[in-house]
Amino acid sequence: WVGRFLGEGALAATSNANIIMFLMFGAVFGFGMAATIIVGQSWGRRDVDAARRAFGSAIGLVLMGSIIVGALGWIFAPQILRLLATPPDAFEPALDYLRVIFLALPPSMLLVLMFMGLRGTGDSVTPVWFMGLAVLVDAGMNPLLIAGMGPFPRMGIAGSATATLLANIVALGALVAWIRWRDLPLRLKGAEIRYILPERELVRTIVSKGVPIGAQMLVLSVSALAMVGLVNRNGIDTVAAYGIVQQLWGYVQMPAMAIGAAVSAMAAQNIGAGRWDRVARITRAGITYNILITGATVALVLLFDGSIIGLFIPGGSPVVPIASHINLLATWGFIMFGATMVLFGVIRANGAVWGPLLIMTISMFPVRLGVAYALLPIIGS
Questions:
Q1: Distance (Å, rounded) from C-alpha 26 to C-alpha 66?
Q2: pLDDT tens digits, residue range 338-365?
Q3: 133 CB-near residues (< 8 Å, 6+ apart)
């Protein structure tokens, strides 16, 4: 919607803002992942109360963290965009977009955390329905708020971010009501509501495991920010093209991230139940399905890249061939990324979190950025 209604400058603005949002997401994601591991291991032991206590503490922790991060993000958004060398044509729209997105941080973080908690108990279906609800509200409200259709105000790029904010609030409220109505395992009611006040021991465990997991997200985010800083120096067309391909990469990564999360939850449950024989089988199955599904996704994106890129920007734009070139060079590598996510998921399920962080740091900084800096003067952007 942004690319079609508002053009290359606005599209470049969203790509800058979304990378920053991913960085903010990483700041609190690790706590949710750590809580999911505890929930999964508790569920494997059939200790429902321990699972609810971990879930409640994670909610309290993530809520406080996302409010603080969101407030700081709102205040320092201009400085962040300047640090990224955001092109002048994209600066003001990026600021408008980013500040509203920061307001959406608490409901979006809680929504993701609740999805992760439900998956920790083996329920991967409920999150699909409520993510679907969020997508419908977001996609449906985008054109109405961007263009000011009907009774809605014309908000431009801020309308796109406002649609995301509304979608997260609606989906979160509906999910909370559903969990209580269906009396799902992680529901908190009566005296259990106090579990939202984080318990010291649980917080210590969640933080000790969550910080390195969150740091992995931060490593990915900071690496991506540094790459965007390089890209931003190559003109608005290259920035917009890179933003489009990042959107495509988000879709390509989804099967890998989903399979990695599933493997992590299943491994945690079986570790909690003492069924180590199943953990190796889960790992092999995860890698196999990743190769098949991520490989198929990559093939589709490469075969139909012209049509897919055309969804984001009109076909005659100079952005299209740049995006197509980036797509051809790098997208196939996500098959290996998926296998890595599966292995990281299994390792994290057993509480080992520092090894993946070290591996991720080496691959993202000396390797990824080192290659980028070395090759930029040789082969250009």
A1: 10
A2: 999 999 989 988 888 889 999 999 999 9
A3: 167, 170, 171, 174
